[in-house]
Write a structure and sequence with these properties.
Elements (H helix, E strand, L loop, with lengths): L1 H52 L42 H5 L31 H4 L6 E2 L7 E5 L1 H8 L8 E4 L5 H5 L3 E3 L5 E3 H6 L5 E5 L2 H6 L2 H18 L5 E4 L6 H6 L5 H17 L3 E3 L2 H4 L21 H12 L12 E3 L4
Parallel strand pairs: 2-3, 2-6, 6-7, 7-8
Antiparallel strand pairs: 1-9, 4-5
Helix pairs in contact: 8-10
Length: about 350
Amino acid sequence: MAKAKARTKTKKARSYQSQQRRRRSRAMLTQGCLGVLIVALLFGISYACVRIVHGQPVLPVSAAPVGAPDGASAPQSAPVPQAPSEPQASSAPDGAQAVLGPAQPQAPALQAWNTAALQERTLPCDLSESDSRMLAVPENGRLSSEYFRTAMFVGDSLSQGFALYEPTRGVATVCAYKSTSPNQVLQNFVGQRPDGSRIEMWDDIKIQNPSNIYVLYGTNALISQSDEAFLKYYGDLLDKLRERFPNVPIYVQSITPTTAAQGAKQPPLENGHIRAVNEAIARMATEKGLYYLNAQEALTDADGNLRADYTGTVDGIHMNPTGYAAWADYLLTHTVYSAYNAQFVTAGPYA
């Protein structure tokens, strides 16, 4: 009897130990799976945080939308861009097709500028057959520098120069912030003004009361973001500016050129790539009923690089006072006609 009880007790002990081993195995397996999930979750969160910090979308985004937003209209105080009656075909710079994407046969036709008839709308042009120069505001007489007294410049440190140099220093309103990109303005990040003070960027912009707006972004964004992400955020910011200032002409400027050495140092800022992105900016601005300015015309040398006599001492991106004077002069000679602008006319076809 005692032996039978001992055997029964031994069997129970073994059964209990077996159950314990199975429980421990299941627990270890569960813990292992949870550990893998936690590691994957932490990796995903870290990846998303890095992309957000660098202004990049967490999920893939398409390039800037090609259609104007619902309700968007051209500025009421100036004519909408016009189209050349017989646009000449022009080949895009190297890399432009990669930024703009393949030609869309069903894409809506755009209105581009006709330099021969500033106030008459002509036939729409096919964007796939045009380049940014054909979509840009042409030379149109000259305004006095007093025109800048009610103008607002929106952008990054390149636009800050308008607060530092003549003829716009102390005249124009400059809502430009160091080392910033459109996505940061959209999120109302704190930015650094030309005088070194800091403020929430969109809060600073939205309280202004300009008669004309000049927008320029891209130098910082091209380094930290994909072209597609930059164009998406840029388009969103232009929509927001149009919504906030519905009747104010908005001039979207081409990204300014860099020196050849700077382009070699930072490939995203190589001038061939900048010109390709400018093609997309020109199309986007025109589709939204805004005005595109090809400021590169005033700032490049024969090779398409930033002119040596305009280059600053810090890098091959920012300019000296001579460069800003030439840039401001270009803006004064490339405006759209309006009754408001007429008071500043000093020479030109509508003087």
